[in-house]
Amino acid sequence: MTQTRAATLLTVLTALLAVLLTPTPASAASVQEVTGFGTNPGALRMFRYVPDGLPAGRPVVVALHGCTQNASAYGTGSGWTQLADRWGFSVVLPQQQSANNASLCFNWFQSGDMARGQGEAASVAQMVERQVGEVSGGPVYVTGLSAGGGLAAVMMAAYPEKFTAGGIVAGLPYGCAQAAGSPYVCMYVGATQTPDQWGDRVRAARPGYAGPWPTLVAFQGTADYTVKPVNMTDLVEQWTDVHGTDQTADVSDTVAGYPHKAYRDGSGAAVVETYSITGMGHGQPVDPGSGSEQCGTAGAYILDVNLCAAYRMGAVWGLNG
Q1: Which of 6, 117, 165, 187 would you label with 235, given CA atoms 20 to 30 Å apart?
Q2: What would you measure as the largest C-alpha separation in the chain, in angstroms?
Q3: For residue 156, how far is the Cα from the chain centroid?
Q4: Dihedral of the CA atoms 288, 139, 67, 300 (nearest 10)?
Q5: What average pLDDT score do residues 297-310 get?
Q6: What is the C-alpha to C-alpha distance for residues 48 and 38, in angstroms, rounded to an integer?
Q7: For residues 115 and 111, what is the distance between their CA atoms, to the nearest angstrom?
Q8: Which of 99-112 are b and which e, b meaning 16 or more Cβ less than 10 Å from the residue's Cβ?
Q9: Is the preceding omega at residue 212 within 30 degrees of 0, hence cis?
Q10: pLDDT tens digits for 30-49?
Q11: Packing angle between helix 195-205 and helix 147-158, nearest 10 degrees?
Q12: Among 120, 86, 87, which Cα is nearest to 106's?
C-alpha cells in the first residue's frame, strides 16, 4: 500500500470513528394527539407538547387557539412550544372541530359550553386531569387568543381550583355575551356592567368557592376591531373585583415601548396585569428571534410587534425560574 493510500485510509477511518463515537441527539419532541381523555362532552380534540426528558412535576400550560386556527400551529406560532423546550414545561393544546363551530371558534359564549361540568369547559378540564395525572404534576396555567381567550376566561371562572393563573389575548370577560345580549355586541361594543356585577358572574360560576382565584395577564391591541379594547377594561374590572381590590393601577409603566399596568391586592401581589399593544390589530403578539425574551413565529393572527405575549406571561408566572 502506498503512503498516500494509507494516509487516505487513515483519514477515512478517523472520520468514521468520530461519527460512531458522537452521541446521537434525542429526537425532537412534537405535538401529539391524545385520545380517550374522558367523556369529552364538548367533542374537542386534545393535543399536547411534552419536551423530551421532561421531569415529573413540571408546570402545564393550556393554550387555546383562535378562530380559523388549529392546535399545533397555534402552539408553535404563539411561541409556547418554543418556551416549553427552553424552560421545561408541557403544553396542552385543545382543538375545536368544525362540527361544533364552522369557523373553528371555541364556543365561549354558549351557555352549554361555559358552565362547570358541561360542554367544552368540561372537555378542557378533563384534558387537564389527564395531563396532570399522566405527565406532570402542575401548577397549571390557561391562556388563549380571541375565542380561545374567551374560553380561557371560562376555565378561570368555572374551574378556578385547577388554574394558578390565566393569560387572555384579545379575549372577553366571563359571561360577556350574556351581559351584552349577544356575543357580537360583546365583541364590537362591550357590555355595561359594574365591577361588582362582572365579579358576580365569576363567583356564580363556582358557587361557594372561596379561593384562591387565578391571577390574570391580559393583552389587547388598540387597533383591534374584532374584539374591541373595552373588553380588556371589562376583564380588569371583573378580575380585580374577584380578587377584592380596586380598579386603580398600582403600576403604570411601559414594556418594550407598550403601556403596561399592574393591579395589586392587599398583600402587594399583582393579581391583574395588562399590556396595551399600541396600533396592533386582532391577534397574538410575538417577537420572532433567538433572543432571551423573543419567541413565536408571525402568521395569520400571529403578529410581530417586538413583544412576545407568551414570554411575558411565562415570566410573570415564574416558568423561567
Answers
A1: 117
A2: 93
A3: 12
A4: 0
A5: 97
A6: 15
A7: 7
A8: ebbeebbbbbbbee
A9: yes
A10: 999 999 999 999 999 999 99
A11: 70
A12: 120
